[in-house]
Amino acid sequence: MNTTASALHTDGMTVRHLDVDISQGFPIYWNNNDAYRSQLLNALSFMFPVGEQFFIDSVRHYAQDVAAQGDTQLAQDIKHFAGQEATHRHLHQQYNDFLVAKGYTPWVEEALKRVIRLTRFFSPLSKLAITVCYEHFTAILGDGLLRHPSWSEGMAPTMRTIWLWHAAEESEHKAVAFDTYRAMHGGYGRLRAFYLLISLEFLVYAFVQSTIMLLKDGQFFKRQTWGSALRFWLGREGILWHTAPHWLAFLKPGFHPWQHDNRALVARWRAEFANAYRPLTPQTTRSPA
Ligand SMILES: [Fe+2]
Ligand SMILES: [Fe+2]
User: Any idea which ligand is nearest the CA of 135?
Assistant: First the structure.
C-alpha cells in the first residue's frame, strides 16, 4: 500500500465528556421538525452501539502489535479511538433506549448482531478491514455535518450538540483504523471487496430501519416525507453530492483518509463547542510531518 500518505494525519484528539442530558428524552422529530430527516438519523443511531463495540475490538486487537513496532503515536491514537467510540456508544445507547421506550423496534441492531456473530469466522485483519470501511462512512457523514450548515441548523440544540460532537470525533480519528490496517500490512484487495459489500449493506440497513420507523409513525406513505427525502439527498447541499466523491476516493490507489484534510472544520467545532464538553484525557497534538 502507498505510504506517502503517512505524512497526513489528525492534528490531535482527546476523549470528551459531553455536557448534555437526554435522560428525559427528546422530541422524536428533533431534526428540523421533519419525519424523514429525524428518522434517518435515528436509524443510524440504532446502528452505533453495536457497530462501535465491534470497531473498538477490531482495532484494539492490534494495539500491542502496533506498540511492539515502536509506533507510539499510533498506539496512543488507538487508545483515544477506543475512548471516543466508547463514549459515543454510551450516549447513543441512552438515545436508543428512549426510542425503544417510545415503541420503535431496533431491527437493525439485531441484524448487525447477527452479522457480527458471523464474523467470528473471519480473521482479525478482515474484521479490521470491515472497521476501516465503516470508519470511512462515518467520516464522510461527519465531514458533511461539520461542513454544511443546512444539515444541522434545524436540529434541536441538544441533538445538534450530540451529532456535531460525534461528527467532529469521527473526523479526528478517521485514519486510526486505516493506519492500523496499513501497519499490519493489510492489502487493498481485501479492503475494496469489503467496501463494496458493506456500502450496500449500510444503505439497505439505513433504509429498512428508517422505513420501519416511518411506517410506525404513519409517515411512510406521505408525499411530504418523500419530498423531504428528495431534498435531503438531491437538493442543494444534498447528501448524495457530498457523499459520492468521498465514496469514490476510497477506491483510488494510494488512498488515505487525511488526503481529504478537514482539520479546519474540526478546529471550528472545537472553538464553537468548547463549553459543551470536558476533555477526559490530555489533548494530543501532532506537528506536521
Ligand atoms: Fe463513533
Ligand atoms: Fe469512528
Answer: 2
The whole domain housing 123 covers 30-277
pLDDT single digits (tens) 54-95? 999 999 999 999 999 999 999 999 999 999 999 999 999 999
Residue/partner pairs of 280-284 with CB below 8 Å, 24 or more apart:
280/14, 280/15, 280/16, 280/17, 280/83, 280/87, 281/14, 281/15, 281/79, 281/80, 281/83, 282/14, 283/12, 283/13, 283/14, 284/12, 284/13, 284/14, 284/76, 284/77, 284/80
Give a yes or no: residue 137 inside a domain: yes
Q: How many whole angstroms from 211 Cα to the centroid of ligand 2?
A: 25
Distance (angstroms) between ligand 2 centre and the Cα of 217 equals: 30
Q: How far is ligand 2, taken at its centre, from the CA of residue 87, in Å?
A: 11
Structure pTM?
0.94
List CB-based neighbours of ion ligand 1 within 5 Å. Answer: 85, 88
Let me know if residue 12 belongs to a domain: no
Given this model, what pLDDT does residue 2 score?
Answer: 41
Which ligand neighbours the alpha carbon of 163 most closely?
1
State the total domains in the chain. 1
